[in-house]
Amino acid sequence: MSRPSAPPARFLIFDSVGDAWPKVALPQVAFAGRSNVGKSSLLNALTGQKHLARTSRTPGRTRGIVFFEIEGRYAFADLPGYGFAKVSRDERDSWKTLLEGYFSSCRKLQKVYLLVDARRGPEEEERMLAEYLSAAGVPYRWVATKVDKLKRTELKGATDKLSGTPWLDAGGPPAMCSAESRTGIDALWKDIRSAFST
Ligand SMILES: Nc1nc2c(ncn2[C@@H]2O[C@H](COP(=O)(O)OP(=O)(O)OP(=O)(O)O)[C@@H](O)[C@H]2O)c(=O)[nH]1
Ligand SMILES: [Mg+2]
């Protein structure tokens, strides 16, 4: 099967205080997860544009919601990473307000992809975020990132870590992905397309 050609994508708008997301009228999906988990890299892999979203070894790089327009019809939202110790309390509170407002009020948000490092599995913050999305009625799905760092024998253990309880199984089995090797990218695209067609 040939790989679907990468769709054109472009930067749309940046929102750090909650005044811009209401202007994004396109159906959208969002990518959430702790700092450094690989949100921006995954977006670049999905769009086939290496430098679309800024990636960094320094955690906490994406400091607000970055919206990208996809194929002129959809939007992807690159969310600020959580769990980053060096962020001030004020900044953390303002992100929380920004994200909760976005999750609870954005009617164009079709689905949230909850990214978790395949080697690490979900922790307390991931569980809280999943519970928050459930309560807000926002569909979500787990995406395990950086699977290229796992040995083949470790893959099953990592997949099991992401299954088995209702909050983990919501939205189907975890998508096992790597921005580096492009593992799982086409399958994730399929899931995104189906989110837009509902
Ligand atoms: N090996 C490997 N490294 C990855 C992968 N995805 C991301 N990385 C690396 O992980 C680091 C963080 O990636 P980002 O995409 O910037 O992470 P982020 O979640 O956007 O981080 P914040 O914006 O700080 O929240 C970078 O050094 C990436 O090169 C992957 O699939 N495999
Ligand atoms: Mg980022």
Brief overview, please?
This protein is an alpha/beta fold and 198 residues long. 33% of the residues lie in helices and 21% in strands.
Portion in strands: 15-25%
Q: Profile the largest sheet.
A: 7 strands, mixed
Low-confidence stretches: none
Bound molecules: guanosine-5'-triphosphate, magnesium ion
Walk across the major sheet and give the strand order. Answer: 1-3-4-2-5-6-7
Number of domains: 1
Separation of the first and last Cα atoms: 25 Å
Which superfamily, in CATH terms, is the homologous superfamily?
Answer: P-loop containing nucleotide triphosphate hydrolases
User: With helices defined by DSSP (H or I, 4 residues minimum), what is the helix count?
Assistant: 6
Helix-strand sequence:
EEHEEHEHEHHEH
List keywords for this structure.
198 residues, Rossmann fold, single chain, alpha/beta, binds guanosine-5'-triphosphate, binds magnesium ion
